[in-house]
Amino acid sequence: MMSAMRTPEGVTVTLVRGDITRQSADVIVNAANSSLLGGGGVDGAIHRRGGPEILAECRKLRASHYGKGLRTGQAVATTAGQLDARWVVHTVGPVYGSSGSDPSLLASCYRESLRVADEIGAKTVAFPAISAGAYGWPLDDAARIAVETVRAARTAVEEVRFVLFDDRAYEAFAAQLG
């Protein structure tokens, strides 16, 4: 399954049903937790498949600039280790229903990830559905925020790929591309 559209800025936005750790892209975005030290879901899968190099760089970040962890809505790049990518951009999505369930924080994850991708010269970026899993953000709303934010972004990235793990997520994102 695949759907596509172009943004006003000329970015091709595609949807893919699959495993983000199997994507070939300049950047694979990690829906990280604030510790940057791995976790469950997409975060754990990226750390497992990418290997110890990713965790080693995350530990260096924690020892220097991010001693208290990465704040919700921010993004930072590391090596991609053994993934078929040049970099992993880690971003911390908000947990729905807590004090961090402000939609602007979820939008910031996408904007900041694209800003970091621009800084490192990436042309292709693969995103998961940030906050739509364990962090409990309602899937339809998460898809709307993701697609609207990418559609409005000013970026040099040429392709944004939303990599959706199941049919339900794919359909929610496809409805937003319509």
Automatic annotation (TrEMBL):
**Recorded coiled-coil stretches:** none
Q: Which Pfam families match?
A: Macro
UniProt xrefs under SUPFAM superfamilies: Macro domain-like
Protein's name according to its UniProt entry? O-acetyl-ADP-ribose deacetylase (Regulator of RNase III), contains Macro domain
Source species, domain of life: Bacteria
Q: Domain Macro spans what residues?
A: 1-178
